[in-house]
Fold:
Amino acid sequence: MNIENLKEKLKKMGVSNELYYIGDGFPNEAYCLNKRNDEIEVYYSERGKKRGTKYFLSEDEACEYFLEKVCAYAMKCK
Structure:
């Protein structure tokens, strides 16, 4: 899965885009996926701080992990 596939899947699942953010930033109370150079970081943004940051070299692994986290957070797991 790549980032574009991830966006489509989240939209089809009906996950509110207020629960996640794809890009560099610190939205309040949201899971974030940010591609930086050769790695992708996934973290939870809370009050302008990164929590539980994980780094991935594989876009597929990062997207799968992000989907799992956002899905559970949104209670839309299937």
In short: Residues 59-74 form the longest helix (16 residues). The radius of gyration is 11 Å. The beta strands are 20-22, 30-36, 39-46, 49-56. The helical segments are 3-13, 59-74.
